[in-house]
Amino acid sequence: MKAFFDSDLWWSFTRSPVTMISALVAFICIAGAVLAPVLAPHNPFDLASLQLMDAFKPPAWGEEGDATYPLGTDDQGRDMLSAIMYGARVSLLVGFCAVIFSTTLGVVLGLLAGYLGGRTDAVLMRIADIQLTFPSILVALLVDGVVRAALPREVHDQIALFVVIFAIGISNWPQFARTVRGSTLVERNKEYVQAARVIGLRPLAIMRSHVLPNVMSPVLVIATLNLGFAILAEATLSFLGVGVPPTQPSLGTLIRIGNDFLFSGEWWITIFPGVALILMVLSVNLLGDWLRDALNPKLR
Amino acid sequence: MIRRLFLVAAALLAVAGAAEARTVRWAASGDPNTMDPHSQNVGTVTMVLQQIYDALIARNQRLGLEPGLALSWSQVEPTRWRFMLRQGVKFHEGEDFTADDVVFSITRSLQPTSNFGIFVDTIDHAEAVDRHTVDIVTKAPDPILPNKLASVYMMSRSWSERHNATRPQNTRQREEMHTVRNTNGTGAYRLQSREPDVRTVLVRNNDWWGWADASNNGNVTEVVFRPIASDATRVAALLSGEIDFVMDPPLQDLNRLRQAGNTRVLEGPEVRTLFIAMDVGRDELLYSDVRGRNPLRDVRVRRALYQAIDIQAIHRTTMRGQSVVTGTLFPEQVNGYVREEDVRLPYDQARARAQLAEAGYPNGFEITLDCSNNRYINDEQICQAIAAMWTRVGVRTRLNAMPLAPFFAKIQRDDSSIYMLGWGVPTLDALYSFQSLLATRNGAQGDGIWNFGRYSNPQMDVLVQRMKTETGEARQAAIRDALRLYREDVPHIPVHHQMIPWAMRSNISMPHMANNQPYFRWTTVN
Amino acid sequence: MSLLQVQNLRVEFPTRRGTLVALDDVSFEIAPGEVLGVVGESGAGKSMTGAAIIGLLEPPGRIAGGQVRLEGRRIDNLPYEELRRIRGRQIGAIFQDPLTTLNPLYTVGDQLAETMTTHLPIGPAEAKKRAVEWLELVGIPAAAQRVDSYPHEFSGGMRQRVVIALALCAEPKLVVADEPTTALDVSIQAQVIALLKNLAREKGTAMMLVTHDMGVIAETADRVAVMYAGRIIEIGAVREVVKNAAHPYSAGLMGSIPPISHRVERLQAIEGAMPRLSAIPPGCPYNPRCPFVFDRCRVERPELMPAKANRAACWLYAPEEAHRLQESGLA
Amino acid sequence: MFSFIVSRLLQALPVMLVVSFISFAMFAYVGDPVAIMLGQDFTEAQRQALVQELGLDKPFFVQFLTFLGNAIQGEFGLSYRLSRPVAELIAERAPATLELALCAAIIAMAVGVPMGVYTGLYRNSWLSRIFLTFSLIGVSLPTFLIGILLILVFSVWLGWLPSFGRGDVVRLGWWSTGLLTWSGIKALILPAITLGLFQLTLIMRLVRSEMMEVLRTDYIKFARARGLPNRAVHFGHALKNTLVPVITIAGLQLGAIIAFAIVTETVFQWPGMGLLFIQSVGAADIPVMAAYLMMIAAVFVSINLIVDLLYYAVDPRLRIGRGRGH
To answer: What is the pLDDT of residue B438?
Structure first.
């Protein structure tokens, strides 16, 4: 811990107020999302608690506002604050899982390609090239579309969340794989790895203990920047109506619903989830930017 | 001299002004998926085609029957109706309209690929008596045939044969026929161009027979229809003046449209009633946690679900007042409506819980409500509200909202435990609803074809039979009894009659129609 | 009058852990046509001195004190644009790695012509003609054809010849050559150095030759400056410094210089390592490694003072410390 | 040059094969076309007849080859939803999407590259900071939100620009263009900005980091040491070297723009392929989806080819050696 606070990373962190603010915002978003069941004033998933007569309440500070609903309510009488907290939960869940998925896949395949080289490398990188040809949002749409068409609706609804995670995750692995492969190629030829080979360590062990730690910092940077992308991708899919199921509304779903009320004066139904989404992605992106600069001394 | 020139110029301008194009740019959420008049009995198709095609019998602004392509009609025998046709009518491509075209059109709409069976189900055949007289022979006496024929459009035999379109397009087999994109009617407007999903342009047919009639006072020379699926975009387009007329403005934006100054809202009821239908046929529900029995077969459970719904909250909040709360099957415009039977079971959560307990479900049960999300006004929101209300009395409801196509496919497979449906009555007669929705599905054409909950009550079947055959007071009595039975047996949970606000630029005036169809023959642009 | 005068030059790098002093009180002069060798271990500040003279210190590095004068005119505080006119025209530069010094997307002819048209009153056609001449001059065979080649089509040695041509083509009075042969194959180092030396002599160009290769210095330079930890610790005629170094560090450094043809090691190893810039000891920076260290060295910083035939920054040569010099055996 | 193109085309072949295989798999296996076509009431004989008619009883690779053969001729069957030949539908919509994508790409490049160059050169100026903040907000804003906000401001509040559709189009043979009418151009502005904004910020950030990378290289230092004017150093030497990676990414981004057009077209009801695709996804219109996929793949492959050719033009190192060492 002490080592951490003493590190360059921490130092550059304390030097950048923007980074500190975005870290704070990101922390609030994540905490609010993770602790939603504890912190949220209402449970928007509990149908029995919804009061239709409380629908369309403006935020608490408005004229007809109600202190029970700090950010107002939506068309079903759902508390917006709670809905946003739970929505952020879904958005972040999808974002994190998708990034973890693509990171794992990308790192493993990248290590394999870089370390083993030869045919494995050629095949894997060719696949990555092909996939990179396609924009990730399209890959995600197609995966989602195929699964949607292939599975009966009920089954699909139950696994929709995983489908979205898979669709977004699978669309991003080549980025990781390429980076890791590049770093692995460099590391592989370094003396300590050669030495490890000579003393007869198995490739797997070499990769895990020698190569992997050295490629982690670019991976961390890409992962952070990808988190913002994954959250946006999920919101976009949900906005198009092919994302998470409506029973578990994410921020994108909330925006889509709120979109209908944009002209009618009930602005809070769309503005607040929109602001929450932007804040979340912006803070994550700022952190990612900072991390990239901090871990890449050349840029300083 | 100069003054005179001015006067001439002004006069010329005035003339030019009178002759200038008066265009109505019209938007709705859905696009017609065919231009074939006998293929799809869907509002989005009819709203365009009824400008282009005429039926034998027309409707007036109050939806009453008027002479159309037929000047007069009479029931010459119990099963034979005779129609005297209007003379000198020409199709848009120049063919004369004759009795032979009527026979052709009736025959065409009787084909199995037609979706218009409900309007022609009683017809045996049509025969031309002379060039301008047609007889239509029914299998059994059909007192409301003229009502039905107001929805059957007349095509040209020679044109159809020339273009290899003598039967309606089979949407199932996905064939592309000439009629998918081309029309040849006798109506007030001609189809000038059509790009599916993008724009459909109609131009005024100055040779239309109806313009002679002073009641057809419209001055619209061109209609440009564009589908805009997104609610927000549609409203934005109207507010910004890119669109003159929106048929389905979102309810939440009505206030804004009323206050906007250059737009206005026409309000009025639609002849369409939303209700919740239930699977009362199966012994075990498909989508529920109750095993071995079907709670919905118990009238107490149906009543409990009924009384759990706070319909006023839905009316005020979800519908923003744009609904007519009802306790019966159809609104008052429909022949057979009885005000005394239009009474709801009161909203009473405690009573709902009590009845559930009585029926043996003190802890409620789980159920899945199927619902469309783009068919009726705020359909998904209504279902969400209802799901919440049911959950509150213990019936834990999962909402399965989906687009029109999969929704209809699902309920038509009898693959639903409980679903919300909206039912319009184009014939404006009670039989249409009872026969389709509540008669036992027995394979006879028309009976119970939309009865996907398999409600079957011999009493109801008898009453439907009487509606089909009897006339006069006896028929009215049968309808009254059926409505009483509907209230007592709770085969459906009525929700409300839909209101259909139309929004338009202030310079447009047109009559609001309860069948949710705009009539440009009555539309003026200033 | 000397061509280049550097007086009390101080270069600082502000960092998070305080300001690092990369060059401290560096002073020297170069006469017209003279070759000054600058030697020292890596990190001693040799390249930094060159960069400071041509005004291309990498940010955040900056000149914090002292002056640089070219023909008596102060150039360290000139506006960017005026200094730019001096670079290439008056002071040419040669960098270490010919592989990365040339822009891969332009032909060598284009790069030569571009430099000449920038500084000399000639048109493109003339520039092209001179480009071929310069390539011939630096020994590129078939120059007329190779003038349209891209850098990647040349070998390393050939590329460094191109770089030399680029540095000299606007006929500057001074060339700062920063380790011009380090990145080259041993077999061609001598050729390139010879070329550089001959060209400089031919054109009368003065040169500041930065290297850590004593052999190169011995064969090329007129005078030599030895740098250590950002300071010049000894400066003098090359013969004197090589044969009879005054400063203990230089003396160690010059221990043996094999002939350029079969050289194995570049600098004789000296016990210990040069201090990092962040940890320069007070007094004489060499004191932790110096075999002759005494108390004064740890406290007081020595200035350059006459020492043997040279000038050295070592207290042993302070008149009052003469007895210690005797004991050390350096005398 | 010729062999270069041929080798690139040969490399594109497997991509197209893989994509057509996926398309075919979708077409043939997803959602059972026979069941979809027959509806609910059918006899076994009818089913068999349709199976034969569609050739579904033939061996797998024969079916695939048939599909491929048809696809090459642009024959993808009829749309389930609109009962019209899919190829015709796509050909009708393609101009709308391509015009939109091209304009968006031009906006993204024309604004993004200079902004990137500027921020790369003057890293600490206040304008750079504004640009950077703007770009961060740009990448953090979902496209659909940008579109909605633009409509709100420019269509509803200000009433300057249309909120949907393509305006009046002019037919030039089979191509329909909105660029020749005033209303068409007005209709293009908001969607093109919406679509281009995200890419603009991406390109700006990319150019900036590449520029900074290049500015640190020795040959830039050497160019300065040769006393070249800043203009020559920045725009002659640095920018040209920056362009190499920028071309790749910009090419890939053009693909991304076509894909993201799906979202923009939905928001603006732009009658292009993206809207067609989304409507088809909603209606499970597999033939359209399959054809769209093939068509997009073909577009991407061509874009990649063009990118490679541009590379070839910009980077002399590619013209001889095999290596693309960088």
So the answer is: 94
Please check whether residues D57 and D112 belong to one and the same domain: no
Residue B129 has pLDDT above 90, yes or no: yes
Contacts of B64 (CB under 8 A, 6+ apart): none
Domain tally for chain B?
Answer: 2
Co-location of B277 and B353 in the same domain:
yes
Tell me, what CATH number does D177's domain have?
1.10.3720.10
Q: If pLDDT is split at 50, 70 and 90, which confidence band does D39 have?
A: very low
So what's the pLDDT on residue B206?
92
Partners of C93 on chain D (C-beta within 8 Å) are 222, 225-226
Point out the residue among C85, C101, C106 whose CB comes nearest to the CB of D227: C85
For residue D122, pLDDT over 80 is answered with yes
Say yes or no: B196 and B345 in one domain: no
Instruction: Tell me the count of A-D CB pairs closer than 8 A.
Output: 97
Predicted pLDDT at C264: 40
- Nearest-Cα residue of chain D relative to residue B31: D82
What is the structure's pLDDT at A125? 80
Determine the pLDDT at residue C262. Answer: 42
pLDDT digits (tens, 9 = 90+) for A103-144: 999 988 888 888 887 788 888 887 787 777 666 677 777 777
Q: Smallest CA–CA separation between C92 and chain D, in Å?
A: 7
Percentage of chain D beyond pLDDT 70 is 85
pLDDT tens digits for range D264-314: 888 888 888 888 888 777 666 777 888 888 888 788 778 777 877 777 777
| Closest to D98 measured CA to CA, from D247, D270, D308 | D270
DSSP string, A42-101: S-TT-GGG--GGGTTPPPTTSTT--TTSTT-B-TTS-BHHHHHHHHHHHHHHHHHHHHHH
Q: What is the average per-residue pLDDT within B50-74?
A: 92
B174 inside domain: yes
Residues B86 and B188 placed together within one structural domain of the fold:
yes
Contacts of residue C126, Cβ cutoff 8 Å, sequence gap at least 6: none
Cβ distance C87 to D316 less than 8 Å, yes or no, reads: no
Please check whether residues B164 and B213 belong to one and the same domain.
Answer: yes
pLDDT over 80 (residue B169)? no
- Can you give the residue range of the structural domain that contains B134? 21-223+503-525
Evaluate whether residue B436 is within a structural domain.
yes
Determine, yes or no, domain membership for B165.
Answer: yes
Closest Cβ opposite residue D151 in set B233, B403, B413: B233
* Minimal Cβ distance to D227: which of C89, C97, C102: C89
Chains B and C in direct contact, meaning 3 or more beta-carbon pairs closer than 8 angstroms? no
Domains by residue range for chain A, with CATH? 7-36+81-295 (1.10.3720.10), 46-78 (no CATH)
Are D10 and D159 in the same domain?
no
Contact B197 D276 (CB under 8 A): yes
Strand ranges in chain D using DSSP code E only, listed in sequence order = 170-172, 175-177
Structural tokens at position D166: 């393509």
Q: How far is CA B361 from the centre of its chain?
A: 38
pLDDT, one tens digit per residue, over B260-299 is 888 999 988 888 999 999 999 999 998 888 888 999 999 9
